[in-house]
Design a protein that fits this description.
CATH topology of the largest domain: D-amino Acid Aminotransferase, Chain A, domain 1
CATH architecture of the largest domain: 2-Layer Sandwich
Strand content: 25-35%
Radius of gyration: 21 Å
CATH superfamily of the largest domain: ATP-grasp fold, B domain
Number of domains: 4
Structural class: alpha+beta
CATH class of the largest domain: Alpha Beta
Shape: globular
Number of helices: 13
Length: 415
């Protein structure tokens, strides 16, 4: 008897969902994405159901007998898709809203880190503008000012003066943000440790060096991510082991005691200081858009098997490590200052391409959106070679108002 192909639903509509769909296409399964977008529709079957419509997503999965759902969307996680699916005996790889609240809210994350005595920069949380102004008058500069929840729309800024801080606080509250989080800026090397966990057992998936500022040399505005490379040679095995023991395990233990075990991928965003110590900034409830291909390209495991083991509770029995390739990946985000520009040269690129929601015109040409458009990722046997080949491919991609950082992984050539 021939076993039927597995049916997988990925919930989300951004670059990380595109990367996941590409990865799952290499397995013997049928890949669906809800809601997806026009570029994801070229590599998977898109389902016209919104990420926050968890009841309709459940009905679709039950009706069509899906084998596994992967909720990578923060919107779906916040709307508690995991608890709904688990209550209806549907396998899902995602944390519940309660278990993921510290990865969805910066205010909750900061309080959680403080309670667990995990090193984090000095911070303050305010729900009224005047109280924030009073704090900023005596706060050391620079200050990192963030909205409580990640909305991907200029919700964070590094401010070097009281005046710029006050203006940005005003702007956040004017946009109806309920809370703002203020944090001392920490100088050092920013990186993310990703782990896979079933809530009780956790294994490292990779360490990624992050580039968050828009301009070369860490200038300009602070973004969610503009480039990355992995493995991160600056983060030693001792630092990674310390993070696993003193951060990841403590977090999982605390969540278990609350009876809210965290199932899924967890990203721990950190800064490595010059003295070799680290601080934890915040968390991600899945891979980020800008580094998803870099991580996934190096995973030498069948993700369907891995995620399924977490969902059914056999992860600790089945895995004592996750096989990671000894290759290296470098990623760079390409942005456009305006929409509607034709993107040329993609057919000549050998790097992996992950798309944000760009669209094709009537001539089937890709056109830019204003903001992030593409992530190019090159994987090779060394970081320096991956970087060289990546920037050669970036030169082949052309559109008006193209913008990107030219210094991703530049320091590896001096290492």
């Amino acid at each position: 008897m021939v076993e039927s192909r597995k049916k997988i639903l990925i919930v989300g509509a951004s670059a990380k969902e595109y990367a996941l769909a590409k990865k799952f296409n290499s397995y013997d399964c049928d890949v669906f994405v809800a809601p997806g977008n026009s570029v994801i529709a070229e590599i998977a079957k898109c389902v016209d159901i919104r990420e926050d419509n968890t009841e309709e997503l459940l009905a679709f999965v039950v009706k069509n007998s899906f084998d596994l759902t992967i909720a990578s969307s923060e919107i779906a996680i916040k709307n508690n898709i995991a608890e709904l699916f688990q209550a209806n005996e549907q396998l899902i790889f995602a944390p519940t809203a309660k278990s993921a609240d510290f990865a969805l809210s910066r205010a909750v994350a900061k309080k959680f880190l403080y309670r667990l005595k995990i090193p984090t920069p000095r911070f303050a949380i305010f729900d009224k503008p005047q109280m924030a102004y009073d704090y900023l008058k005596n706060a050391p500069m620079p200050q990192v000012i963030r909205a409580d929840e990640n909305n991907l729309k200029n919700d964070k800024l590094v401010c070097t003066t009281f005046l710029s801080s006050k203006i940005f606080v005003d702007d956040l509250f004017a946009r109806n943000e309920k809370k703002v989080v203020l944090e001392d800026y920490v100088y050092g090397h920013e990186f993310t440790l990703y782990v896979v966990t079933d809530g009780y057992h956790a294994l490292p998936l990779g360490v990624v060096a992050n580039y968050k500022f828009m301009e070369d040399g860490d200038g300009g505005i602070l973004t969610d991510g503009i480039g990355a490379f992995t493995p991160d040679y600056k983060v030693s095995k001792d630092v990674e082991d310390s993070l696993m023991k003193n951060v990841v395990n403590n977090i999982l233990d605390a969540l278990q005691k609350k009876d809210t075990p965290y199932l899924g991928i967890l990203g721990i965003n950190c800064v490595l200081k010059d003295d070799g110590s680290f601080v934890v900034l915040d968390f991600k409830p899945f891979l980020s858009d800008f580094d998803s291909d870099a991580i996934l390209n190096l995973v030498d495991e069948n993700l369907l098997t891995l995620f399924n083991a977490c969902a059914i509770g056999s992860f600790a029995d089945d895995y004592d490590s996750i096989n990671i390739s000894d290759y290296s990946s470098v990623s760079c985000v390409l942005l456009s200052r305006s929409a509607g520009n034709i993107i040329n040269g993609l057919d000549m690129v050998e790097s992996d391409i992950t798309y944000f929601p760009v669209k094709k015109n009537t001539y089937l040409e890709y056109e830019t959106i204003a903001g992030k458009n593409l992530v190019l990722t090159k994987t090779s046997n060394t970081l320096s070679r991956a970087r060289k080949l990546l920037y050669e491919d970036i030169d082949l991609v052309n559109f008006e108002t193209k913008k990107y950082r030219t210094d991703i992984c530049e320091q590896v050539e001096k290492f």
